Predict the 3D structure of the following.
Amino acid sequence: MNTAAPVLTPTTRALARCLHLLIIGLLALAAGRAVTDDRPHAGLIVAVAATCGLVYAAGPLLPGVRRSRRAAALWLAAVGVVWLMLLALSPDAVWVAFPLYFLQLHLLPRRAGLAAVAATAAAAIAGFAAHQHSFSPAMAIGPALGAAVAVAVVWGYQALYRESEHRRRLIEELTATRADLAAAQHTAGVLAERDRLAREIHDTLAQGFSSIQLLLRAAERALPNAPENAARYVDQARQAAVDNLAEARRLVAALTPPTLEGTTLAGALERLCTTTSNRHRLIARFHLTGDLAPLATAHEVALLRIAQSALANTVRHAEATTAEVTLSYLGDHIALDVVDDGRGFDPTRLPAPDPEAGGFGLTAMRARAQALGGTLTVESAPGHGTALAVQLPLTPPAETEPEARP
């Protein structure tokens, strides 16, 4: 109901209308009683009451009153002066003091409003006592009680309004924070999914295409002198393409790798070693140690992909004749070791990953192990082969569970 406020809520607009009606009604009551009771100076009372009503009505229509406390104070002073003139002529004007309390408390600063209310109450008491030609404490009860009620109501409303505004700002901040958090989570999810797909593509499709390329090169070399060997290499390349197509479809459908369907991790690794030995000039042997224990899908997928990538690197780069793949159950850990007798390399001088030349294998394998709370170590030296070791805890960190399936 603050007339100086630029924006009013529906509730404050309704209260302001009620206040307008109350003041106009009380002024009309004072003028009407002066006429019906045939009081002295009845015409003057009607004129002053009308003037008070006009001065009051001009306030809400003046834009300066809505924008400036100073203008609002001047308007209140004008209303007060005309009301005092009416109070001097008619005791019925004392009732107008009650809505004036609300105006003063809303339009003036707290201290100034409280002083204006006290002055208005004192004027109402004095004016009514002057018309009665006597004074008694009972005459002060009505204006004083009305002033107290007005102060309590207005200050209580202002406190509620401040609390409501505070809660509104908190809700807006919470909504904005939740929106920012949702955006951050979405971005993190997109990046995590992009990283997962990159690892999956590198460990499956890229390695499969590399195997197909090697087989076709072998077929090309064998074609002039040994067409039967060339046909065998082409058949193996075709089978590798079929496997790659199955992997691609599984990636799209987000299912487990086909090599893990209907078998255990040990069976999938043994099959991987057999397939690698059949397709390439490498004898890959699988070994299993320890007591078997149930594994989460996340562990099976990660270890299988690491073994696939490690053997693919051995075929492409190591020029090895044998590779030993060992899966070990170590109580609360599981370990995978891939050891070859190839030419080895210097782990401290790895080339930077390149989209054309590759070089993402070890990074992807290490990321898989770390995502499940494990470790990956590589030991190698030029001319002395390579040993890759992965250890994973059987219980992965809670935050990595959603990456259980590729």
